[in-house]
Amino acid sequence: MSRPAHPHAMAPHTPGRTRTAPPQMPSTWWSAPRIRNYLLFDATGIVYYLISFLAIGMVQALARGPESWEAVMTRLRHPAYIAFHVLCLVSVVFVAVRFFSLFPKAQPKAIGPIKPPPGPVIHAMLYVVWLGITAIMTAILAGVIF
Amino acid sequence: MRAFLLKIEPLIWLMFGQGILIGTMLLTGWILVVGLLIPLGMVDASALSYDRAYALATASLFGVIPVGKLVLAALLVLPLWKGAHHVRSLHVDFGGAERDGIVGMLLYGVALVGSIVGILAVVGL
Question: Which chain B residues contact residue A134 at CB under 8 A?
Fold first, then answer.
């Protein structure tokens, strides 16, 4: 962890006339709040990878028939799976909050004559869509509707 | 390998972006119900009995649009690409820039294989 990734990445190509100390990354670089959040955002990729493969396995079980499906649903009651899904939920909420805050900044100033809505409006729209889809998905899967 | 990855970067970013946006929007409700509320007994397990789960997965809109399969396919495939791209980025951040080409190919390769397996699983319903 304390090994600098590229200590000379920002150094000039040719040494200057003034002697300078070699650039060094502090050993705690990864724990600085901004970088830590950035790394955590990246680390959610591991969770997304795993939840996808788990979901693929569930659909395969559904295709195999009732016994396979019931076996999978029983397995999900194991505390390890529940802990994993708590981690998944924290991860998707973290990704949503961070990504939605970045999204308005990444929009072009204009596409032809059309200008995108102000940042706060885009931000609010993303939350409305996300919470709306989550509410509908939750209601359908939980048997509240349909 | 890095040259190849740079060439297909628009495609990777398309899948990665949709993985974050659509993947996150679909996964939240899925995780909540399938991973937590039903296993914890807060929602009756009959909500996702085999018959109901199969009916939901194969539901169609107006008998034409296979909405259940489309949602499932997006839910299975898109997060894989978000995962692959961010794990690659994490690997670079922790000093793996020299092996980025091979690691990137491996991660996207797994995402591609997973996408094909996932789509085949959905089509096979």
Answer: 25, 28-29, 32
Q: Which residues in chain A are closer than 8 Å to B36, comparing Cβ atoms?
A: 82, 85-86, 89
Taking contacts as CB-CB distances below 8 angstroms, the residues of chain A near B111 are 49
Closest chain A C-alpha to B27 CA, distance in angstroms? 7
pTM here? 0.87
Q: What is the DSSP string of chain B?
A: -HHHHHHTHHHHHHHHHHIIIIIHHHHHHHIIIIIIITTTTSS-GGGG-HHHHHHHHT--BTTTB-HHHHHHHHHHHHHHHHHHHHHHHHHHHTT-GGGHHHHHHHHHHHHHHHHHHHHHHHHT-
Tens of pLDDT, residues A74-100? 999 999 999 999 999 999 999 999 999
pLDDT band at residue A1 using 50, 70 and 90 as cut-offs: very low
A12 Cα to chain B: minimum distance (Å): 20
Instruction: Domain B2-123: state its class.
Output: mainly alpha
The verdict on a CB contact (< 8 Å) between B25 and A130 is yes
Judged by CB atoms closer than 8 Å, whether chains meet at A88 and B97 is answered as no
- With a threshold of 0.90, tell me whether the complex ipTM lies above it: yes
Q: What are phi and psi of B61, to 5 degrees?
A: -95, 125
